[in-house]
Amino acid sequence: MVLQVERAVVAYDGRPILDGVSLSVRAGEVVAVLGANGSGKSTLVKAAMGLAPLVGGEVRLFGTPLKKFRGWHRIGYVPQRVGAGAGVPATVGEVVAEGRLARRGFLRPASAADRRAVADALEAVGLADRAREPVSVLSGGQQQRVLIARAVAGGPELLVLDEPTAGVDAVSQDLFAGCLRRFVAQGGTVVFVAHELGPLRPLITRAVVVNRGEIVHDGAPPADDDHVHPHAAAAHAALEVARPAGAGVWPPADGRAHAATGDARTVTAGVWPHATAV
Ligand SMILES: Nc1ncnc2c1ncn2[C@@H]1O[C@H](COP(=O)(O)OP(=O)(O)OP(=O)(O)O)[C@@H](O)[C@H]1O
Ligand SMILES: [Mg+2]
Questions:
Q1: Is the pLDDT assigned to residue 250 strictly greater than 70?
Q2: What are the ABC transporter domain coordinates in residue numbering (predicted)?
Q3: Segment 125-159, tens digit of pLDDT
Q4: Which residues neighbour 98 within 8 Å (Cβ) at sequence distance 6 or greater?
């Protein structure tokens, strides 16, 4: 088993966010983690990476309990958002080269294999010609692609991606889907969070739906994007009421709840796929 999360409980300030969640991922699977804003998708992924405080349950990576796990070079992780204004100005090439560090050690100089892996990863996300530019001059979607390239450059066996295609245009999404397809064809395992599957849908072997800190569906992927957010309309209504002042353009152009800044935990509507079975 590549990843095992067993009865994981995560709480912030005493407030339970994950409530005994279990998720096992085998080698070669491509698992999409779906659910409304604030449902706990990122928290689940962070718990699996040892980045969220686990107050109960257990996580195993490649069969090893998290505390004893040292094989981080086997995992490429892309967090949900690029932190704005990271102190040191790094170039695109440098950031992607960081993805090789766990593999080669901090003090050894980059080998030809390291440089080739970085070049290949940049090529795969369509940024080969931007390697020498500071990351800060890139657009948000391009920065996201830099992080994906960094995760891929390390030659991982497991890719964990939190909304890898959010804010990424259609052409880049296709590019990314191709990149993932090659990764999976070579035996890689993928867990990714998404609100819209788009060109990634054909790659998915399994979908997990998180709702209020619990997994409410684990199995067949949804047939189309309408079912990724089954209660988008209900969530939209709830968020509209809860809309913070100055939240920008509202409603979002595509009418989907995920574009909002609100928290949909208050939504009590039915849960996919049950809603679609009606
Ligand atoms: N570090 C933290 N401290 C306190 N609360 C947190 C923290 N991280 C997440 N939460 C809370 O946990 C809940 C789940 O958040 P999480 O980021 O996992 O949601 P999500 O499903 O990834 O949502 P989105 O689709 O918006 O990314 C939210 O209510 C959020 O406010
Ligand atoms: Mg998230």
A1: no
A2: 3-237
A3: 889 999 999 998 998 888 888 888 998 898 899 99
A4: 150
**Can you give the residue ranges of every domain in the chain?**
88-153
Cα of 155 vs centre of ligand 2, distance in Å, is 25
Q: Which ligand 1 atom is the nearest neighbour of the CA of 258? A: 25
pTM of the complete model: 0.78
Contact 207, 222 (CB under 8 A): yes
32 vs 263 pLDDT, higher one:
32
Burial grade of 15 (CB within 10 A; 0-12, 13-18, 19 or more):
exposed
> Looking at this protein, which amino acid is placed at residue 248?
G
Q: How confident is the model at residue 48 (pLDDT cuts 50, 70, 90)?
A: very high
Residue nearest to atom 6 of ligand 1 (CA): 12
| The amino acid at 176 | F
Spatial separation of the C-alpha atoms in residues 154 and 99, rounded to whole Å: 5
State which of 13, 43, 81, 160 you would mutate to test the pocket of ligand 1, scoring each by most atoms of that ligand within 8 A of its C-beta: 43
